[in-house]
């Protein structure tokens, strides 16, 4: 039978954590079929052994579709490959180092989306934990809004992917492969199709550790990555005639350049500072 939900689990070097992640998905209690797509981005550790043991031994192991890439694709390309492997009407996300706590999470979120066709996605609470599972606090300081408008989603007001359930798009734009901030782009694209809503679900656990994508990246490198992402998102919205949203991202690009300028000047990186100063002055009055 065709699954109602495809759960995407991208993983890389999650040998220590992925068993807990998988079990939290397989423990879901639903009145519909779902599948778990595990996309291993050529992990050099024993992630594949953990996954294959669960497939072999778990009573619901047959729900898992597992592949290991022959070469490392990067998070976004790996996500798209997993997305295209699944066939569910709805998509949920749980990376290999995170896990869910509510066994009725999928049921609650699917019910919400089926009863509210104007919503493209829904989300819920999460907490941050360390490598030992100790709770560090509520994710992103505070309660998520009860609703996110289409405009808010398009402008990158982003629920944590771990908490998402969304309607499958016809396709994910290929531009997502060329940026670091793929989650921001995906949410912005989803926002063109509908709004987002909050669902009461026991908080999921988002793990913070040195293996995370951003953990070893400097502030300046993050800003430079964001500039590239904002440019791609801006161009996507220009091509779809969402000019107000495109201008919003143009302003984000300018402000990021300005921040990099001041950081470089503060640290006496004069030549780099002049590069970003030139961009900022050139585009200060830029209009679409």
TrEMBL record:
The keyword Glycosyltransferase applies. Keywords: Glycosyltransferase, Transferase. Coiled coil: none annotated. Pfam families: Glycos_transf_2. The keyword Glycosyltransferase applies. Its EC number is 2.4.-.-. InterPro entries: Glyco_trans_2-like, Nucleotide-diphossugar_trans. Transmembrane segments: none annotated. It is an enzyme of class 2 (transferase). GO terms for molecular function: hexosyltransferase activity. Residues 6-130 form the Glycosyltransferase 2-like domain. This is Glycosyltransferase. It comes from Christiangramia crocea. The lineage of its organism: Bacteria, Pseudomonadati, Bacteroidota, Flavobacteriia, Flavobacteriales.
């Amino acid at each position: 039978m065709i699954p109602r939900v495809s759960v995407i689990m991208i993983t890389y070097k999650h040998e220590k954590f992925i068993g807990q992640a998988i079990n939290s998905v397989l423990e879901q209690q639903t009145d519909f079929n779902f599948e778990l797509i595990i996309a291993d981005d050529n992990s050099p550790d024993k992630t594949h052994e953990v996954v294959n043991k669960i497939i072999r031994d778990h009573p619901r192991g047959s729900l898992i579709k597992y592949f290991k890439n022959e070469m490392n694709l990067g998070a976004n390309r790996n996500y798209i490959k997993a997305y295209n492997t699944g066939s569910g009407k709805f998509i949920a996300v749980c990376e290999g180092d995170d896990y869910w706590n509510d066994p009725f999470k999928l049921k609650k979120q699917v019910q919400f989306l089926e009863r509210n066709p104007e919503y493209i996605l829904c989300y819920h609470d999460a907490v941050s934990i360390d490598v030992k599972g100790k709770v560090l606090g509520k994710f992103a300081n505070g309660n998520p809004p009860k609703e996110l408008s289409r405009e808010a989603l398009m402008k990158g007001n982003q629920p944590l992917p771990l908490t998402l359930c969304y309607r499958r798009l016809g396709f994910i734009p290929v531009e997502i492969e060329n940026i670091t901030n793929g989650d921001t782009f995906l949410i912005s694209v989803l926002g063109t199709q509908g709004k987002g809503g909050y669902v009461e679900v026991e908080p999921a656990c988002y793990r913070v550790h040195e293996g995370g994508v951003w953990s070893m990246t400097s502030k300046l490198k993050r800003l430079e990555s964001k500039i590239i992402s904002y440019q791609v998102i801006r161009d996507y919205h220009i091509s779809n005639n969402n000019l107000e949203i495109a201008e919003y991202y143009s302003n984000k690009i300018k402000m990021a350049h300005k921040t990099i300028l001041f950081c470089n000047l503060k640290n006496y990186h004069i030549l780099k500072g002049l590069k970003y100063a030139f961009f900022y002055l050139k585009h200060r009055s830029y209009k679409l």
